[in-house]
Every structure is written in structure tokens, then in C-alpha cells.
TrEMBL record:
GO terms for cellular component: ribosome. Transmembrane segments: none annotated. It holds the Pfam family Ribosomal_L7Ae. This is Ribosomal protein L7Ae-like RNA K-turn-binding protein. Coiled coil: none annotated.
Length: 107
């Protein structure tokens, strides 16, 4: 498992990660989301929805990994979208994501 996925598990245990469409959208709108990660195998509509929302609210977005790996990294079933609510975790994970080839898109 990549270091970025391990760090997602750490953020979960620290209570600095939220998951689920509606909750992540709420965090984006309230400017609490510091980084949003969407699974690379999410539907094109889901990817576009979060790409547009993150661009509007100027929240960094990464599209990569797959839903199964995202879910297992945080100890839950498959997950399509995650949001980090702590800037320190967001910065740490962004550094690792930039190094990996498993992420297709980061903005």
C-alpha cells in the first residue's frame, strides 16, 4: 500500500477525514475541506461534479487510486470520495500523491 493511503488511515483515526457525497460537498461549501480525493474508477459524472465544485470553491482535488483501495486504507468498504479537513494532513498527503503514478489528476 502506498504511503499516501497509509496517511489517509492515519487521518481517519485522527478524525480529520470525512467520506460520502453529501458530507464532502458540505465540507467543500463551508471551506472546511482542505483536499478532496475522488476514486479514479468513479463515474465520469461524479468526477465532473467534484472537479467543478472544487474549482468553484478553490479546494485542491486529486483523482486517483480506486474505490476499493481508498476504502481499505480507511478501514471501511469501498469509498468513492474523501475530504481531508486538516491542512497538515492535506499537505502531507499531497506531497505523497505527487510522487505516485496512481493519481491521474491533481489540481
Amino acid at each position: 500500500m502506498s504511503k499516501a493511503l497509509n496517511q489517509l488511515g492515519l487521518a481517519t483515526r485522527a478524525g480529520k477525514l470525512v467520506t460520502g457525497d453529501e458530507l464532502v460537498l458540505k465540507m467543500i461549501r463551508s471551506a472546511e475541506a482542505k483536499l478532496v480525493i475522488v476514486a479514479g474508477d468513479a463515474s465520469l459524472n461524479t468526477q465532473k461534479k467534484f472537479r467543478d465544485k472544487c474549482a468553484t470553491y478553490e479546494v485542491p482535488l486529486a483523482i486517483g487510486f480506486d474505490r476499493e483501495r481508498l476504502g481499505s486504507s480507511i478501514g471501511k468498504p469501498e469509498r468513492v470520495v474523501l475530504a481531508l479537513t486538516d491542512q497538515g494532513f492535506a499537505d502531507m498527503i499531497t506531497k505523497e500523491i505527487v510522487k505516485t503514478s496512481e493519481v491521474e489528476y491533481i489540481e
